[in-house]
Amino acid sequence: MTQATTPSAPKALGHIRVLDLSRVLAGPWCAQNLADLGADVIKIERPGSGDDTRAWGPPYARDAEGQDTGEAAYYLAANRGKRSVTVDIASSEGQALLHELVKHCDVVLENFKVGHLKRYRLDYDSLKAIKPDLVYCSITGFGQDGPYAHRAGYDFLIQGMGGLMSVTGERDDLPGGGPQKAGVALTDLMTGMYATVAVLAALTHRDRTGQGQHIDMALLDTQVAMLANMGSNYLNSGKPPRRWGNAHANIVPYQTFACADGHIIVATGNDGQYRKFVEAGGRPELGSDPRFATNPLRVQNRDLLVPILAEMVREKKRDAWIALLESVGVPCGPINDIGEVFANEQVRAREVAIELPHPTAGKVTLVRNPIRMSALPATSDKAPPLLGQHTAQVLHEMLGLDEAAIAVLRDKGVV
Hints:
6-stranded parallel sheet; 3-stranded mixed sheet; 2 domains; formyl-coa transferase, domain 3; 17 helices; Rossmann fold
């Protein structure tokens, strides 16, 4: 485990400021990426409650005595490196504050329903009039136009509507068959990643031309794009791909197997690796068997071969199989639970888990940004902020408001 990069280290986006109006996951994930790359991200939250995910616990971060703080682990996962400012966007004074803040920002992120922010004069057209070169990124379920534009979009729904669940899960003809969602909110996360790319591209365009623009990101668009080869397979064949569980449609064996004490993944990419696999298992005759000698034959005779291989694998323990197959060059690996992931020697060597100082928990442990750049580190020195932690700081620093003026705004419930 490592400490985060020191504040003095140069950052790729140290010249960029982001006004983040987004909540929950897709928008905050994008904003966290930008913060990790050095942007000054100002997270605007509702006074008193803040981002919805602040209440999405347990689990919560724990303090030095092992007691729960009020910081939900879900919220912590997507909000490091930001400054939290509370503003009531429904009040005219709150809107005026945000209009002033926008003048000092390069990017606005939001994930409200289509048209919702127009009533508060926080839509793209309203803010473009204040700052013409603004990069404004909207993240919604279905985009800014089309017959579904005004529908609310949620990751689970989009995984179903966008085809991911149709190719995820066990085969219908096997026990437990049927569609499954992914174990993490992949559509939200990938939309946040695509939004990050779009914001960086728009900033590059702005820097060349002085022109800002509106970015329209939709969860459904992202999910369809994420189908990748599966989508291409359908478009070029007219046949919707089916679910294969932990098996592969075109390669055998390329799947999970139960060992004597756990599970492993075996991924034989060619006939030579297959023969090494069955030889290691004491069944060399399966390598020359005319039914299984080539991959096309193994695919054709999958239902005959896989039960034989499953019986073979069950004879040894997981770690014994991994050591044996690695020694002969057969791609394999364990199926780790999350605890085993963070205990893994490679994960520890790469210092994936980082500790950041925190005002109530003392410290929090988070997952570092996976971007590794030799000159410009992509990781934060700041823990996810407490609700409104930086309100006074930002309003004084950027708008010149003194303590008395900020106190008046607090008394009115504006901040």
